[in-house]
Every structure is written in C-alpha cells, then in structure tokens.
C-alpha cells in the first residue's frame, strides 16, 4: 500500500534528495534547490511529476535547435533553456518523492526526456558543422557519439541505483530486473495497451543493456537475493560495499549531464561545437571503461564473500 504524501509544510529540501553518496555538488548547490522550489509549486497546484517531465522535453529540444545557429547570443539562449530543462528534470524526481507519486512510467519518461534533448543537440551540431564546411562524415561521428552517450547514461544510472539498493534497500532505489519486466511486458496487449507496451519494450531493452554490460554485478545481485530474500543485508556488508563503491559515484556523475554540458557550452563559446563529439567518444568513454572494470572487480569480490560466508 502506498504511503500518504508528506504535508508540504513539512517537506524539507533534504527529504527530496536520493542520497548524499550519489548527488553531485553542482546539483546540490544549483539544480536541486531550483528543482525543490519548482516541485513545491507544482505540488501546490497539483501538477504531476510526469507533466513536469514532458514540459522539460520541449525546453530541452528547443535548446538543441538553438545550437544549430552560429550566432553566440542564440546559443546562449539555448544554454539557458537547457539549464532550465535540467532544473525541471531535477524537479520531477523531487516532486515524485515529495508527493510519493513515483511510477515506472515516470522513470521511463525521465530517461526518454534526456534522449530527446541530446538527439536534438546531436542533429543540430551535425547540421551546423556541415554549414561550416564539414563533410557528411560528421554524421558518423554524431551517431557514434550518440551511441556512446546511451551506454554512458545507461551504466551511470544503473550503478547509481545499485549503490542506492545496497545502502537504502528496494524502497530507496529504482533498480529493476529484466526478468520481472519481461513478465509485465508479456501481460500487456498491443491492441489495448499500445503506448504502455511500447514504452515497456523500450525500458526492457534498456534494462537488458545494463545487465549485459555488467555480468559480475548480475552474479552479485542474484547472490544477494538468494541469501537475503527479505532484502535485509548485514550492516557490515552494507558498510563495506558502500566504502568501496562510493568513489565510483563520482564517475557516474562525470559521464552524465553536468560535465558534458559544461564542456558543450565551452565549445559553443569557442565556435567549435564538433569537439563535443570527440569528448563523448574518447574522454567520456575512457571514464566509462574504467568505471565498468572497477565496478565489475568490486562485484566479483563481494560475490565471493557472500558465496563463502556462512
């Protein structure tokens, strides 16, 4: 049974955050306070988290369109729109926690919102680069950078939720399992639930991608569910996992929104937007590879520990 939402006058800023382990400093100092104010307003006027997410899509896509133009003042407007879109993206999650209105559809929409933003940005940079004299090969770079972004976002999001699962349990994370999602997907009808089934298919593929990229982590999670079916892990195990895994949370932040957007803005000011693709492909993918190997090593260590302990 869902819990009743906390009265707005009792909702603190801290209660709308996921965890200090996974929150980035820029988010804590800038995006989360703005999101908190937006969430309070939306809760007061009964605007739902999913509505906020959908509104953010329009602002984010508009930002990408404005990056097509070479005029810096237009780009700056696009930067402000993208910052506001991300503030809305922060607000939807805070609003969901504030009103206890969390849902899988909301989680899917939240992921799709970012995809729409950056699809718009990639297309704009490709078209802009062609106008500046680049050949059609720039689209190859754009596609590879886009695929890299998908992998980076998928694993960054997954590792955050794994960390939250260990330190806060099932209720404190949004960690999903493809086997469970497959059963839910199979029960939906294309004729009666087309939109929901389409979104469920997309989310199922997304979750399978996350799992396929983390085999040792999957062994660890299966071992945890077998040994602790009630979800209550020993405090010592939780503390040790948190200590070893927490440094990786910095890398999940690096490969997600803030770092990439800061550099995107720098290159727009330099009128060298094509560098964004290079940054995605070579710099952020290097962080991704390191993070993946380190997470797999940690998972292997804890899998052996859980498997051998009485």
Using only C-alpha atoms, the radius of gyration works out to 20 Å
The CATH superfamily is identified as CDP-alcohol phosphotransferase transmembrane (TM) domain
Mean pLDDT comes to 93
Span from first to last CA?
Answer: 34 Å
Transmembrane segments: 38-66, 72-88, 108-130, 136-155, 251-268, 274-291
Keywords: Membrane, Transmembrane, Transmembrane helix
Organism: Sediminibacterium roseum
InterPro entries: CDP-OH_P_trans, CDP-OH_PTrfase_TM_dom
Word description of this protein:
The protein is mostly helical. It has a single domain (8-308), classed as Up-down Bundle (Four Helix Bundle (Hemerythrin (Met), subunit A)), CATH 1.20.120. 75% of the residues lie in helices and 0% in strands. Helix 2 (49-66) packs antiparallel against helix 3 (72-99) and helix 6 runs antiparallel to helix 7 (194-212). The longest helix has 34 residues, at 275-308. The model has no long low-confidence stretch (mean pLDDT 93).
């Amino acid at each position: 049974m869902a819990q009743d939402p906390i009265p707005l006058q009792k909702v603190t800023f801290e209660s709308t955050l996921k965890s200090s382990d996974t929150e980035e400093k820029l988010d804590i100092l800038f995006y989360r306070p703005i999101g908190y104010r937006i969430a309070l307003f939306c809760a007061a006027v009964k605007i739902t988290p999913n509505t906020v997410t959908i509104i953010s899509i329009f602002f984010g896509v508009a930002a990408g369109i404005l990056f097509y133009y070479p005029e810096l003042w237009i780009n700056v407007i696009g930067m402000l729109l993208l910052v506001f879109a991300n503030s809305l993206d922060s607000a939807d999650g805070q609003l969901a926690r504030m009103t206890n209105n969390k849902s899988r559809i909301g989680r899917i929409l939240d992921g799709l919102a970012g995809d729409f933003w950056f699809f718009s940005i990639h297309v704009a940079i490709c078209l802009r680069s062609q106008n500046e004299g680049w050949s059609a090969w720039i689209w190859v770079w754009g596609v590879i950078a886009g695929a890299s972004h998908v992998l980076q976002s998928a694993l960054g999001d997954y590792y955050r939720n794994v960390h939250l699962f260990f330190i806060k349990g099932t209720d404190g994370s949004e960690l999903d399992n493809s086997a469970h999602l497959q059963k839910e997907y199979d029960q939906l009808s294309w004729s009666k639930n087309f939109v929901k089934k389409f979104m469920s298919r997309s989310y199922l593929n997304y979750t399978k991608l996350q799992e396929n990229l983390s085999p040792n982590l999957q062994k660890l999670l299966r071992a945890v569910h077998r040994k602790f079916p009630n979800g209550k892990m020993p405090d010592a195990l939780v503390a040790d996992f948190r200590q070893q895994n927490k440094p990786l949370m910095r890398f999940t932040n690096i490969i997600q929104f803030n770092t990439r957007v800061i550099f995107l803005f720098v290159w727009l000011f330099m009128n060298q937007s094509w560098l964004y693709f290079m940054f995605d492909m070579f710099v952020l993918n290097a962080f991704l590879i390191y993070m993946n190997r380190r997470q797999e090593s940690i998972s292997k260590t804890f899998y052996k520990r859980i498997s051998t302990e009485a």
